[in-house]
TrEMBL record:
The name this protein goes by in its record: DUF8149 domain-containing protein
DUF8149 domain location: 3-68
Pfam families per record: DUF8149
InterPro entries: DUF8149
Entry superkingdom: Archaea
UniProt source species: Halohasta litorea
Length: 68
């Protein structure tokens, strides 16, 4: 079993609600789905913080050689 203290914290935001929260990486998908289902009838409004998402995309692109 994973120790919760080892689970990196990921910021998620919902511009439609004006809310922001931070959850453990292992709970991100469930939290996003739950929020969107309960507050927005399943519409994907809440998401991982766009700035973090952009950084991850850049790291992946660099790692697989797309930026060379």
């Amino acid at each position: 079993m994973t120790d919760d203290t080892d689970d990196p914290e990921i910021p998620i935001v919902c511009e439609a609600c004006g809310t922001e929260t931070t959850v453990g990486l292992s709970a991100v998908a469930d939290q996003l789905e739950r929020h969107n289902e309960n507050r927005h009838d399943g519409e994907e409004c809440a998401e991982v913080d766009p700035a973090l998402k952009s950084q991850i995309q850049d790291l992946v692109a660099k790692d697989i050689g797309l930026l060379e």
